[in-house]
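Schema walkthrough. Field components (list of strings):
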Amino acid sequence: MSRQVLSLSRSLALVGTAVLSTAIAPSALLAQGSLGAIGFGYPVNGVSTRTAGTAGAFGEIDPLSPINPASLGGTRNTVLSAQAEPEHRTLRVGDVDEKTLSQRIPLLAVVFPARGGVAVGFSARGFLDRSYTTRSTSSAVVDGRTLPTIEQLSMRGAIGDIRGAVGWQIGNWARLGVGGHIFTGENTAIRERAFADTLQFGSTLDSSRVTYIGTAVTLGGELRLLKGLSASGSYRRGNGFDARIRDTTRASGTVPSRLGGALRYDGIAGSTFVVGAEQIRWSDMQPMASARTTANDALNVYGGAEVAGPRFRGLPILIRAGYARNQLPFSVSAERVAETRVGGGLGVPIGRDAASIDFSLQRATRSLPGSSTTESAWLLGIGIQVRP
Amino acid sequence: MSEGNRWSRSRWRGPLLLLTWLAAPLITAACTENLEGGAACPALCPEQAEQFRDTTFEAVALDSSVSGYPVLGIGTSLLLANRPDTLVTRTIMRFDVLTTSFLQNGTGAIDTITAVDSVFLKVPLDTTGRRGASPVTIEAFDVDTAAGDTVPAVLRSLFRPDRRLGSLAITPATTGDTIRIPISRTVMQAKISARSRLRVGLRMVGNAGQLRLRAFTFGVSATTLQYDPVTDTTYRPIVVTAQTTLPGASEEVNTAYTTYALTDVGSPPPGANTLVVGGMPAYRTYLRFNVPRRITDSSTIVRADLLLTQQPSRFGDVGDTVAVYPLVPVGTEAVTDVRRILDLAADGALSRVDSTRLVPRDSGQRALNVLALARSWRTLPASVPRALALRIGLEGAQSSELRFFSSEAAPAVRPKLRITFLPKSEFVLP
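Field assembly_structure (string):
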């Protein structure tokens, strides 16, 4: 046992060192207006670290991932969950690499069990993250003369998804669930433009802030098809989604509707395998955007597995892996940004069933057809679940 | 093994250490977020910038030139000039309190002055203002009078031979930084004996020339009167500083009349369609603007120039480069008198409005950078007019003037504002 602990400690130490290196390594001076942050931002799709370790494949079946409310059904313990997920992103434009480091808290969740297989869950997760700074040289035409300018745009903010949901387990063959969502958040943009000739021309510093508010309802279900094989599905219907500047609604759209489904196989003891797909109608947000931004519907497909690994203090360490092909919602043209994710992770029990800690590491690559610009990212997740 | 032992601290140590080990870098990472970039712009930066807009318009609602600057006692220098075709000036210096006693050497006893010696008027000069390569004579006159002692015509009438106190022949171009004009011992002794006052008027005669006198240093007259209290040269000279007291006058007025200038020949008055900055006595020009609020309040101004069309000046040193300094009027609309508005104006440097250098004999359109001023208009209360005043450098101590067309001139040459601005926009939506 002591050898196992030592081995685990060494392994985790290596992971920790990797985290440390990722976190505090000096970043390049420049970074990006990136493929991932176009439009209303990057779809964070806040899920649990467990699900992140499978590249999102477990989203439909994981009770801590606020996607399918049916997955809450049958939860027997109160669970508190929190996690962090820094993203180290590299944008390549020609021969130029730009690196950024984003910090995210993608998910906070709590689940309470009730009687008769019913459980209630509340969560707050990241939906669209729109935080970046661009610094570029440009020009302005003044009196018919083209003058060089330096422009810096700082965009900060995000849209979050606050969900309350109920799941019900009906015997051993089915689960049902319903959830209500409030999508809310804000973006603040600060733009500075300065001329090279600072004696004759002054700089400009402008700011603009928008707040968002919208709602949606999700229905979900899970049905056991065969022994060890079940199917899950969920549908989120979006309602009105408003963008407000000061007290005025400047644009209205609809919260993107989502339809997802997954097949789950857990016929092998200690193991779970999932394949699935989802369709998100991001075009519902097109009325909120200008003609410069195109919102495309996205079809995401994924597959992932979780298997029991070596035991730690009598409980197995869970080892996860997954693969996903995603389409990002926003673009500056008719072409869609494609994303491929490969993920892996660990689930380590702490204090028997009282708590657990999950790690995930995902590698994402993004590209825009017809463009030489590519993007890659490391997403490191750490999540803690406490079962008081 | 009991339950208590199984949950003992030692069994938690390893996991807690690991947890700490992993959490620490994440916390550190949270402090080092870096989101700066831009290489993909403009291709992947869909937030398009609003375009700058240019406008040039006749924004002047009121313009006027006011003479008589600097106010007496305010200028630090004075011109003593004899250039009959351009500029002729005189200076007046008042010594209303003369020292009438002295301390005897050795005994220290106070004794009354009965015989003075080596009486001089010591006048410090600004050598950058001297002109004239031919010899000139500076004459000093007793201009003390019982009545009308502030009336220029009365004072001018006292510059006559029977009141002459002394003279000094110099060549202006070769003078040092001080001149010493001998004053009549007889007159001086009489003034001291009578416990009277000495008021000296200076003028330059002979060839054309000009000297720039230092009038005040730290608010005190720079010119002094020196004399020996006895004919014995072992005594240190007595030094008297110019000072005066007018009945019922304020301290400022008294200072103003301590040392000042009279102008015999000066600037021609501006025409109906002309604004003047400088000259002798100097003019200041006031311009009040009417700028649309959509520019001042709802936009960011990035360039603001006051466009003035210069007329060639024929007065004074037309070939010298002179500086035009801005003044920022800060009075409200309740103040309607232009001279009062100018008196209350703040130095333009306080509003970061810089000076502009021009040559009086030139002509054509000139652009004065008023960017900082225009950007400050947004912060002004509505009751404060958007305005600018102009004064010339070395006001009252040099003869150059600048002439511009006013708002009453032909449309093409009227004052204008050229403003480049960026309208406010809500650019946050993608």
